[in-house]
């Protein structure tokens, strides 16, 4: 089995941007392809993008396809996604080579067939292009199906384990309701020991009597050790370490 198959994703059109101006393409090109997308249900040839940040991408290849998708969304706002491949630092140059070769081969093939074989050559080129598109579409369908089956099996297998992993709300409730002994035990599990551990537990108990904690930041800002400088018992950095440690613990005995 081929490893590291390209992950063709459905990308939110609003998360994409292009360095190519829309005016580079004619209105007829964009509208024609946009209507094709709406009728066919999407783009056959995935665009190539690179990640800008966690939620945004820039188009590397497929600028016309991108603007056609934007236009399709303008026509029908239910059209929200476009198929694309997200390049990373390890494969971006290789993927760009593929797209460059595909574009140059497509242009060269079309020019050659038109000049040497006329209308018959054009028909053959169109047939080859449609066949390639069909193969790509089938491959994407199979990859999507395999991914769906894998996720379904994983969800079924680890459903019970997922239920044991505490969420942030559980942790906040514990800070508000946990007994002194349980506070000490839980804090010790994160590496906080000795007098510092008991002092923090006492400070938590005392402060929450004034009012429930509404967030972890609220705990960090309100709970202070009983000293002249009013030193915070749990800094933001320490709170992150505590939550990270608690989220890693799963009670294996319950499995």
Q: How does this structure look, described?
A:
The protein has 255 residues and is α/β, with parallel strands linked by helices. The protein folds into 2 domains: 8-157, Alpha-Beta Complex (Conserved hypothetical protein from pyrococcus furiosus pfu- 392566-001, ParB domain), CATH 3.90.1530.10; 164-254, DNA polymerase, domain 1, CATH 1.10.150. Helices cover 60% and strands 11% of the residues. A 5-stranded mixed sheet has the order 1-5-3-4-2. Helix 6 crosses helix 7 (194-208). The protein is elongated. Residues 112-119, 160-165 and 250-255 have low confidence and may be disordered.
Strand-residue proportion: 5-15%
CA radius of gyration is 29 Å
For the record, the count of structural domains works out to 2
Q: What is the mean predicted local confidence, pLDDT?
A: 78
Give the low-pLDDT segments: 112-119, 160-165, 250-255
Query: Helix-strand pattern, N to C?
Result: EEHEEHEHHHHHHH
Distance between the termini: 34 Å
CATH topology title of the largest domain: Conserved hypothetical protein from pyrococcus furiosus pfu- 392566-001, ParB domain
What is the top-level CATH class of the largest domain?
A: Alpha Beta
Structural class: alpha/beta
Based on CA inertia axes, which overall geometry fits? elongated
What is the makeup of the main sheet?
Answer: 5 strands, mixed
The helical percent reads 55-70%
CATH superfamily of the largest domain: Conserved hypothetical protein from pyrococcus furiosus pfu- 392566-001, ParB domain
Assembly form of the protein: single chain
